[in-house]
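Q: How would the structure tokens look for this protein?
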Amino acid sequence: MSTALDEATRAWDLREPVVALAFDKSGKTLAYGLGDGGVALVDAPKKDAAPHRVDAHDGAVLALAADADEAAFVTGGDDGKLLRVAASGEVTTLQHWKGKWVEHVLAPAGAPFRAVGVGKSAILLPRKGDAAPTALVHPSTVGGIAVNPKAKRIAVAHYNGVSLWWTHGKEQKPKVLAWTGSHIGITWSPDGNYIVTSMQENALHGWRLSDSQDMRMSGYPMKVRSVAWSQSPYFLVTSGAERVVCWPFSGAGPMGKPPMELGYARPAPIVAVAAHPRGDLVAAGYADGALALARIQTANAGFAKPPGGGRVSALAFSPDGNRLAFGTEDGLAGVIDLP
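A: Here is the predicted structure in token form.
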């Protein structure tokens, strides 16, 4: 069912919670991973396009990412399957771990592998050839996976810290960045110099890799569930507060520096964020369904969508930055064409 929010927005009721979304590498196809295991595919540039639903998982979609080629996605589900969903709608099972959940998926551009989080293991799956998968085992459940810009190392968040591994598949011991507590998400800075995790408590923790100096970023009223990196100068853009919190990572990093705050303080907190792939534009999704856009350099902000349609659960800019896609827990999904 199409819902017209304004002339720049196309929206649909997908009737199931949107768990994750992503544009493919070309930006032409947009995929929504749904709580009932379906994947909804949309021709993003086409003004009158309607979502095409594909039945994928036998259970909820837990993770979704663009695959390394230009017309496909990889998805993980609570049925233990890792799937490749082509833009055409063709579904291929890549792996099946019976009785497990596939909660994290990555397919870095230019990398010869896909990375998957299953239980306590981060698994590297070769994209081609007959090489066996490499299981990198951790002391507790994987909380998140990040890959450095050259895809030569991966970082895995887990209880009491982060493990750093090389991606060459050879036997190795990880370098451990220790910090007591539960690390439930992870990101690697675009310049490769920093790793930051989201904590179970209302805080972030980070490390500068050149000297293993660690940093704590606290003061949030709620857990930080969503982060994104702006382009140079680098800011880490985060949810978890009434306004978008932006930590400066240029130069020596955020140690001793206060963050910027963007957007509007509203009764509903910010629960999802995204950063433009080239400019300093930031998108913020609120718990009441509202969307705001703000610029880091000027702090100018405006609303892109009024409240309604459920809590924002996923946000992403297209690779060319011309569109912003959103999804909510109530199944509202849409694309905003940006000027």
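DSSP finds no helices and 31 strands in the chain.

The longest strand covers residues 153-166.

Upvote if useful.
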